[in-house]
Fold each of these.
Amino acid sequence: MARLTKKDVIHVAELSNLKLTDSEIKKFLPQLTKIIEFVGTLSEVDTVNIEPTSQTTGLTNVVREDRVISENMLTQEDYFKVPAILTERT
Amino acid sequence: MKTPLTIKETQEGLKAKKFSAVELVDSYLAQINKYNKEFNIFLTVTEEQAYKKAKEIDRSNFQSPLSGVVVSYKDIFLTKDVRTTAGSKILESYIPPYSATSVNRIEAAGAIPIGKLNCDAFAHGSSGENSDFGVTKNPWNKEYVTGGSSSGPAGAVSANMSLVSLGSDTGGSTRQPANFCNLVGLKPTYGAISRYGVIAMSSSLDTVGTFTHTVGDMEIMYDVLRGEDGFDGNVKNFVKPEIKKRFKLGIAKEYFIDGLDAEVEKMIFEVKKTYEKMGIEVVEISLPHTKYMVPVYYIIQPAEVSSNLGRFDGIRYGNNRNSFGEEAKRRIMLGSYILSAGYYDEYYEKAMKVRTKIINDFDEAFKTVDAIISPVSPTPPFKLGENTKDPLKMYLEDVYTTTANLVGIPSLALPSTFSTSGLPIGFQIMGPRFSEHALFELGRKYHQEIDYKPKIAL
């Protein structure tokens, strides 16, 4: 397992759009290192041929019916006609 | 006046004109005014709204399931025109344009909303100490935490500032504070109660939690809250099943780990004895992946947190990302790291696979037992500041509670007794998906047997 470096913390903060102070970086580095090491213990579990779980309901493709909410909505071919929100450049 | 501690007594009192709904509101508000400064439970008190609704209730015949029940909400439930902060400075002045489904359902059933409650910011925490608006103190002893993240909801009901409250439970955030404050707390089946209008933390784990003094009240609340609303695609309607006459319970041998407090362990054996005395069989079972609950949870949850909190960009809602507190920053970064190129398979994919194995353990267990008894927290309530220096130590608080969220099953936390230092301790019962009504029956039986009486701290 890769060890977390100060460069990683700065990179991850950038990915997260967070601006960290130097003292925050100093504080987070050992804390995040410890947490990542801890969660890394999962590597000892045998997961060969195990499917990942991303949800527990078993439901798929739950959709609600599309409804036109305004009676004034006009259709044109397969599209809805709505009032213009942009005007032509003059 | 002395306010009643159950829904039934509240409604009987209203019907018999022993007191009015307006007088109930007077009484809860007096309690809030007296103690809120000291315990930091409410962030917003909706006095005007409460009196308006109370007057409506006083003109009614009290026939709705929650007529006259005074309720308060964790501040992650959107409430139309009432400030909703999620306990974070990011949203310190955010006014939602609509209300959560659960808020609408509870109020349509006659409940009187009295205010919005403190919590760990964005529901990140197991002690209430991560709120950007200051820590909530435990009404049973103000040197101790209420637990978290639903710190305010547990504080409000145990300090008698409202009869019931709504919280949320992503990894124990309802059950642990309920236990630390001597209350009944429910984490429902994932997909039983709509989360529409509840600020999202970790979408594959988040559920709406409820706090009450008794199991009977919990059942009433649950039946009001549950069912499809057309806005949360995970929610499924179901018919209340017939409750079995004979139950068989299990306790996992893997629960007795280092770090389990001796008093909590003793209480679990007392609970076992109590059920056996009632003729309910309790057997030892095995949940081999118990030790991986917290690692799996602290991969999946921060990953989803980093995604859900991406929406707080300072443009659409509230302040910019510099206003995130320390714990939110920590979880966002953890999530971003776990999901970043090169680490996704090692952490996120792996955690999702181990989650499958955990679910298989429970499917196996529920072939032989109807429900599983477990501690909620490995320790009785801890002191303010005791766990704040070491985030990992705080995460380990969640060892028994994250299970129900990862597996998607319901769990009912029940008050049981008090520790030698006078602080509440209790346990939880977990059952298969949509077995809430069976858990209520088991909870009721236990409380009857120990002659449990609701108590308030202040």
Amino acid sequence: MSIRETRILLSDIEHPESPTLDFYLSGGGYKALEKALKEMTPKQVVDEVTKAKVRGRGGAGFEAGRKWQFLPKNNTKPVYLTCNADESEPGTFKDRHIMERRPHLLIEGCLITCYAIGAKTGYIYVRGEFPQAQASLSSAVEEARAKNLLGPDILGTGVSIDIWVHTGAGAYICGEETGMLSSIEGGRGHPKLKPPFPAVEGLFRCPTVVNNVETLSNVPFVIREGADAFLKLGTADTPGTRIFCVSGHVEKPGVFEYECGVNLKDVIAAAGGVWKGRKLKAVIPGGASAHVLLPHEIDVACDFGSLAKAGTIMGSCGVVVIDDTTCMVETLQNVLEFFAHESCGQCTPCREGTGWARKIVTRIEAGKGTMADIDRLYEVADNFEGMGGKTICALSDAAAWPTKSYVKKFRQEFEEHVRLGRCPMKGA
Amino acid sequence: MGAEIQTFPPEHLKERFDRIVARYPKRLAALIPLLMMLQREYQHITPEHMEGLATYLGTTPAHVLGVVTFYTMFSHRKRGKHHLYVCKTLSCHLRGAPGVIRAFEEKLGVKAGSGEATPDGEFSVDTAECLGLCEQAPCVLVDGQRFGNITPEMVDQIVKELSR
Ligand SMILES: Cc1cc2nc3c(=O)[nH]c(=O)nc-3n(C[C@H](O)[C@H](O)[C@H](O)COP(=O)(O)O)c2cc1C
Ligand code: SF4
Ligand code: FES
């Protein structure tokens, strides 16, 4: 079935003036901010976003409004908003498009959120490899400041909020929320044990809300149009739209915004389908951390619940398509090189485990593995899968899920490497 | 090397440094943004930078060193004037990154990730993990500029363009 995009977050991104304040204002931009500041109490804003069930677009799908309500009540410390713009999950590039093409949408979302949670300062943590996004956001901040939409006494309401763009410097683990906070504080990107959750003790040991770029960019729509309008989009499980990042072996890689619940098979078809007239071999639906799907498993609705039921995750919505000329052992090797490189090293199961798994899969790919290695690879991954408190953060899970699913679903291919003593896809 | 900077922060960066520090309730929070500026200006982070920053931000040189070694975008060794990040992760790998990496290594005569610059100091090459540019895989980030949908045949042209 051919499907149509619903562009709320990505509306008019192709327009050359799209990043400018004038263009944003001409489309009703900052109306939601004005409405929130002038007509709503902070609590009403929180309630509206809670009612809209805006689930976190950073990967885990936690409801934003509920997260905001975790902030301690009789708090006397400053409160911070930190926007997670680290976007480093392999196969994910949606936040970049928002920041480069619609920086004011994100800034408006940050400002409304700061007002709702009582924060006077928000930091947008943009990965170091996104200089264009940093520049686009920084000039948008200055434009907004010049028009009294940001800074002291916004629009004469007495509310003062500052937003700053903060740069990362190359480390996937700074996308993990507590790793990001350590990084903003000027340290290594070491995640911290939770609890305490950032809402209670986060940046500079103060209550802090961490939300993803796409999550916060939904806030202006919810406030301007109301929660009911948002709830009409998508599914009951995941209201709203999502930006699908489609890459790999498709004819037309790119970003596509659909209502949640769209069929994964149709998303792939909309991106031109498998390239070069080849056949589909596998799909990763939610970034490299996701469990891989086989061709017969992609007839599935894309929302958090349906993909979980299908045994994988919606995650970051990074859809990576893999054609039938691809070696899955080599693909897993590539994924494990990533995770072994990005493990921050604090927890032994993650630091050692991802390294072992990488070594074993490299051995199998080189034709030097044994049948026992295949089971060992699975067991090692099973062992560093953090669920149950073995590790500080979920990077170890993110590495375990692909590993276990590749071995399970493509076991024959792993065995063939062992039997032949070489990679069957690389000729004799 | 040490002669490069007599005072810290370097005169021409002082105002920008102070402005960034003012954004945070704690001075140390400016560390990574300031290191990024130094890395861009000098193509590496020197022991003098680390000592200077430690005093300027109120921490120890050891802390700064720990941060410098943690993040991939900082380097002790002087990088080339143009430092190439060639993505090697999943989507780029699926669309031919290994051939592109090889082509850059051959063209420039340096090994990716070795930290070594070409003898004229113009180029160095690094592999990078997913650059968040997967719709243009395989891709390269250099001097904040991006090149996408690269084939090994395009490598000559890219190097020529950067040398201009
Ligand atoms: C290893 C790891 C990497 C992550 N990387 C990112 C990231 O790049 N961007 C992001 O928004 N969230 C990332 N997350 C999720 C964050 O920890 C956090 O849940 C999210 O930013 C919260 O925002 P949300 O509720 O709006 O999704 C990562 C989590 C883990 C465990
Ligand atoms: S699980 Fe891995 S990445 Fe996360 S804190 Fe532990 S060692 Fe670091
Ligand atoms: S995998 Fe290369 S940019 Fe994402």
